[in-house]
Design a protein that fits this description.
This is EF-hand domain-containing protein. It is a single chain. By secondary structure, the protein is mainly alpha-helical. The chain has a single domain (about 1-119), classed as Recoverin, domain 1. It is about 65% helix and about 0% strand. The protein has helices at about 1-10, 20-40, 50-60, 70-80, 90-100, 100-105, 110-119. The longest helix has 24 residues, at about 20-40. It starts with a helix and ends with a helix. Mean pLDDT is about 80; it is low at about 1-5 and about 10-15. The structure holds calcium ion. The site of calcium ion has 8 residues, from loops. Calcium ion binds near residues 82 and 88.
Length: about 120
């Protein structure tokens, strides 16, 4: 499950920066769709946002049994750009891209092309 791999990477487990090769394979648009699929797996279906509760519940469903509460808080606060305590789709995608050193190197304005797709 792709989303599980993203989360695992964020937590520093066997980090393998494969996003650049994913983009090469899928194209930027396909890559964004993959990120959006991951977002939907982790979000709260009613709110349309990734909240602490939805991340905790769905990361467990995805097999991330060892995800600690403080790691979930850390991920949320890292990605929460507008300060509402939850991640919307844009914030989630930006967070994932920021976690990829390869993508950060490729483009100085790492999130600009991403925003072009999402907005
Ligand atoms: Ca937010």
């Amino acid at each position: 499950m792709a989303a599980a791999i993203y989360v695992n990477d964020h937590l520093g487990l066997d980090f393998d920066d494969y996003f650049p090769s994913m983009i090469a394979r899928l194209g930027a648009e396909g890559f964004i769709m993959e990120l959006c699929n991951g977002f939907r797996l982790l979000m709260d279906g009613d709110k349309g946002l990734i909240t602490f509760e939805s991340l905790k519940r769905n990361s467990f469903l995805l097999g991330l049994h060892d995800m600690m509460d403080d790691e979930i808080f850390c991920m949320l606060s890292e990605g929460d750009l507008d300060g509402d305590g939850a991640l919307n789709q844009m914030e989630f995608c930006v967070l994932m891209v920021r976690l990829s050193p390869g993508l950060m190197e490729d483009s100085g304005s790492s999130t600009q092309w991403l925003q072009d797709y999402l907005i």
